[in-house]
Amino acid sequence: MRSSADFELMLRGAELRVTRPRLAVLAAVHDHPHADTDSIIGAVRRELPEVSHQAVYDVLRALTTTGLVRRIQPSGSVARYEARVGDNHHHVVCRSCGSIADVDCAVGHVPCLTASNDQGFSIDEAEVVYWGMCPACSAPS
Amino acid sequence: MRSSADFELMLRGAELRVTRPRLAVLAAVHDHPHADTDSIIGAVRRELPEVSHQAVYDVLRALTTTGLVRRIQPSGSVARYEARVGDNHHHVVCRSCGSIADVDCAVGHVPCLTASNDQGFSIDEAEVVYWGMCPACSAPS
DNA sequence: CCCTTTCCTTGAATAGTTCAAGATTGGGTT
DNA sequence: AACCCAATCTTGAACTATTCAAGGAAAGGG
């Protein structure tokens, strides 16, 4: 758990103005890993009830662009955000309930995978999504 | 390029009724790998002008459910479909223009990757998306 | 050839996200 | 401390991809 002062430094480090909506969104993403936009709006409004949804969308975009948060969006899901950035970790997604958990990099380097034939593309990231069933959904009811 | 008779056999093999919309969608997906729904609707209507968009959505869902086509949806993209199924290959996506190309499996087995810590999930598939720039977009203009 | 079930058409609804215009505010400068 | 301007936020509407729902059409087994 980080303090508001930490978030302020992170924003200044990214050359973003320090505003209350931004501090609140940053805190919400840190507190609720893999939360979708709606959940983040809810968390932010617990502290700043008047924040518009558009502001949250704008802030999330700014934070994503500067790399302070990472946006993930498995097929069939809405956009989700997390604060764990820079370590190229991956995700497991439950096919049944959609819950997401972190998985460390399969090999240990960034990027941790190399395409066997890159089709002439210059590749800068390998994103892995593991699909399966979470413990709760695979448990006999 | 497969014939209409092949597509008919594929549908029957999947226990789906053989209809003209389904044959046309199947042909369109085979002819236009990684096409989005709108492109597929366009391709289908070149042959069957009266097909509704809802029919195409329904058919794509049926084909995806039975495994005759595969649905892919990189972050920020609409749903796309391809007919190459069952070999667990992966994709490179251009950050600039969104174009997609196939990449063979990084290791060669299905699933070709194993999560280092699976968080208790039972994993049945590892999906890899390589992000980068396609040859056209990275060329000096 | 008929009947049942599946499929397609038509039309409307929905959710998530973005666009646009104007008001507010952060923070560098005077 | 007051000023200024670009960046940010509010308000409200628009948009797109997709899904829902009800009724008509047609596939294919009997």
Keywords:
Arc Repressor Mutant, subunit A; zinc (chains A, B); Dna Ligase, domain 1; cytoplasm (chains A, B); DNA-binding; 141 residues; 5 helices; 3-stranded antiparallel β-sheet; transcription cis-regulatory region binding (chains A, B); 6 strands; alpha+beta; 3-stranded mixed β-sheet; homodimer; transcription regulation (chains A, B)
Question: What can you tell me about this protein's structure?
Answer:
The structure is a homodimer of 141-residue chains. The first copy, chain A, has 141 residues and is an alpha+beta fold. Chain A has two domains: 4-81, Orthogonal Bundle (Arc Repressor Mutant, subunit A); 86-141, Ferric-uptake regulator, C-terminal dimerisarion domain (Dna Ligase, domain 1, 2-Layer Sandwich). In chain A, 36% of the residues lie in helices and 21% in strands. Chain A is built from five helices and six strands. Chain A has a three-stranded antiparallel β-sheet with strand order 1-3-2. Chain A is globular, with a radius of gyration of 17 Å. The first copy, chain A, starts with a helix and ends with a helix. Strand 6 (122-133) of chain A pairs antiparallel with strand 6 (122-133) of chain B. Chains A, B: Belongs to the Fur family. Chains A, B: Its cofactor is Zn(2+). Chains A, B: One of its GO terms (biological process) is negative regulation of DNA-templated transcription. Chains A, B: It is found in: Cytoplasm. Chains A, B: It comes from Nocardioides gansuensis.
